Amino acid sequence: MNVIQALNARHSTRAFLPNQVENEKLTAVLEAAARTPSWANSQPWEVFIATGDTLDRIKSGYQEKYADKTTPTPETPRPVEWSEAAKKRQQQLHPDMVRDCGDAVEQFGLLNRTMFNVPAVIYICMNKVLSQWSLYDIGAYSQSLMLAAIEHGLSTIPAITLVHYPDVLRRELKIADNLKIAIGIAIGYADKENKINDFVSARSHLSEIVHFFD
């Protein structure tokens, strides 16, 4: 698989099989992602991987939070507002999901709250002393990781719901106070029988987003 093929093949998977991801595959993915460029070779990412009993405790902790209607407090805050163009794309998500997934779209909320039933989550953190410029490097690292996953037959989804409750994550993953939890990426084997995974979000035409000047 070449890079273009991987870019076209990658999409957000929302339902996973319970099969554990082999350690050698996780290691291979992380070794590949380590080649990501960063400002002044700062390599700001610090990675924590939750699997097995640890991930089960995180999931249980999240379920308690949801049951108590605890307000999520992700450490990378949600946008205060969206541009009109972004709003238009977001409004098209649900009708497109209904078109592609039919009744399976009704699972969307539950799967978000149950971490997509994934067997592994990669949490990417950065030192709090770093500026927001390092979030660019974190984003690049995340994309590298997700493309490398495709090479090894794995599926992924980056999601803010995975970092809704930092106190649970810090408790179970022993994340130091000097680190900010940037994003979580679910990784595993896609449940290809679940039609929720038939959905692939649309992309804007180049003419809408790219401006050429001679």
Tell me the strand percentage band: 5-15%
Distance between the termini: 34 Å
**Oligomer status:** single chain
- What is the alpha-carbon Rg in Å? 18 Å
Count of runs of 4 or more consecutive helical residues: 8
Order of strands in the sheet with the most strands? 1-2-4-3
Low-confidence stretches: none
Structural class, by secondary structure, is alpha+beta
The helix/strand order is HHEHHHEHEHEH
Q: How helix-rich are the residues, as a percent range? A: 40-55%
Largest sheet: 4 strands, antiparallel
Overall average residue pLDDT: 96
Extended strand count: 4
Approximate shape: globular
Give a structural overview.
This protein has a four-stranded antiparallel beta sheet with strand order 1-2-4-3. The chain is built from eight helices and four strands. It has 214 residues and is an alpha+beta fold. The chain has helices at residues 3-9, 23-33, 52-67, 84-101, 108-113, 133-151, 166-173, 206-209, and strands spanning 46-51, 120-127, 155-159, 179-188. Helix 1 packs across helix 6 (133-151), helix 2 packs across helix 6 (133-151) and helix 3 (52-67) packs antiparallel against helix 7. The chain is globular and about 50 Å long. Helix content is 42%, strand content 14%.
